[in-house]
Amino acid sequence: MKKSLFFFSVLFSLTWAEVPFPVIESGKVVLTEKNSPYLLETSVVFSGTDTLIIEPGVQVFMMPYAKLLLRGSVQILGTEKKPVVFKSLDTTESWSGVHFVSNTAPFYVKNLVVENAFRNSVTQSGGVFESVQFINNYYGLWVNSSNQVYLKKCSFSRNRFALSVGAGSVNVDATDIVGNVFGLYVEKGGKFLGNLQLIKENLEANVRKESDELAGKGKRVSTSVWHRIESGF
Amino acid sequence: MKRTLLLAAFLLLACDQQTTNLVFNTQNIADQKFVMQADMNVFVDDSVPVDSLESMKTSLRLIVTSSLLMAYDDSSARFEIKVDSVEYTSDKRSVEEYRYVEQYLSSQNFQFKIAKDGLMSEPVMDNYVSHPESNELEIAKLFLKIQPVFPGKPVRVGESWERQHAITGENNEQIVVYKNFTLEDVFNRSGVLLAKIRMNMRYKQVSNNPQIKMTSEDFIVGSGFLLFNVTMGVVEESVLEVNGKVNVSDKYSEEEIPKLRVIQKLKLRSFV
């Protein structure tokens, strides 16, 4: 009895063992459902010439502060029944987040669930998020210095700051921002192009505009400019 | 009496002529711990009443361990800086963001090559994936800024020298930093020969990024001093205050950003 229990537990652990996130070879990584789940232990950067393709049903578990930095071509192709999932291995710890930084090729992300990240971001890039769920992140999605980003049928829930729009604009269609602490935050210089009626039932505020907050205090310099100087000086 | 006066004059002359060879120990040095304090104060550079001044204050305290990885035949060496602890605060971030910044900075161990005159090159992060577009801080930049570069020949008290080195910016632009040094004093403390050196620096902030730019019209200037342990070939203490005016612009933003004055105070101290 003991032997068969031991055998069963070994078999179970082998079946569910995470595969290390693959090394980028020949400029391309394809994550398949067959090899899923994957584990990203530290951080990985895809350069401008690298390609990431993720098939439906893939799960990627993230160790604390793991970061996925995507500068090249990205196709995350989940389906409604088999979404792609990025989440922390230990749900009590957050991971850094997924970051899209590609001004060479637009990204395409469909049916992805992103959970427990500190911040997911798009900077200086364009692309489409379709049916993407941002759940329980500190910053659900921060879009900055971009004006070709489209959110279609996405949802934001249980994030601290659901959607933040920095300089540039975001085109949003049929996207729910419900049940977060703060819904939409439009930084000075940012534009939200979409239906504000779908931003509702957020704990502290549905919509905040930095320019209004600054004007109310007689101030002119946005938070992103302060941060920019701090990092660049 | 005459003899004593003559002897005193001779000794004075001898000391005056004495030279000091300022050289980093790149061959056989044990691990060293440093504490780095970096405080930044930024404010809108126009004349408004002090009580309505727009500003940002940040404070970063690091404890790091410097280890010699490889000593080369040409007297240069490769060192590694490992981050032992980080404390960070900013009046422009939340407490959750402090913790996040502390976490990612604590994983920014880096290596660099150093010549015996102190010229640093090839800084590379060990495992850290840098993401400058999201305004992440980088500690290697602080060490490059405060690092002294010696003349490569013995110098007398009162003698000055100028060296320049390049710092790679966030978009791989090369920022040339001009540093001017004066050996102010050489003295013995508990059997250790210390050199007090004044340090001045200047550079122009440049940016190759077509989308977001941070530049300076005039030179950004800095001044401070360092105590160099001549016996051991290591920096004991270094203080530098950098001051400049910067312009920030974003291609996608219509907002006009006023010029901002930045004052950065860096302190590096060796201990243990």
Word description of this protein:
The complex is a heterodimer of chains A (233) and B (272). In chain A, 14% of the residues lie in helices and 45% in strands. Chain A has 233 residues and is mainly beta. Chain A has one domain (14-231). Chain A has a nine-stranded parallel sheet with strand order 1-3-6-9-12-15-18-21-24, with no helix packed on it. An eight-stranded parallel sheet of chain A has the order 2-5-8-11-14-17-20-23, with no helix packed on it. Chain A has an eight-stranded parallel sheet with strand order 4-7-10-13-16-19-22-25. The longest helix of chain A has 15 residues, at 2-16. The N and C termini of chain A lie far apart (66 Å). Chain B is mainly beta. Chain B contains three helices and 14 strands. In chain B, strands 2, 3, 4, 5, 6, 8, 9, 10, 11, 12, 13 and 14 form a twelve-stranded antiparallel sheet that branches. Chain B has a two-stranded antiparallel sheet with strand order 1-7. The longest helix of chain B has 16 residues, at 2-17. Chain B is globular and about 60 Å long.
Q: Encode the helix/strand succession of chain A as letters.
A: HEEEEEEEEEEEEEEEEEEEEEEEEEHH
Biggest sheet statistics of chain A: 9 strands, parallel
Ends apart, CA distance between termini of chain A? 66 Å
Shape descriptor of chain A reads: globular
- Please give the oligomerization state of what you see: heterodimer
The proportion of residues in beta strands of chain A is: over 45%
Helix tally of chain B equals 3
Strand count, sense and closure of the main sheet of chain B? 12 strands, antiparallel
The low-confidence runs of chain B, each spanning 5 or more residues with pLDDT under 50, are 5-16
Q: What percentage of residues of chain B falls in helices of 4 or more residues?
A: 10-25%
Mean pLDDT of chain A: 91
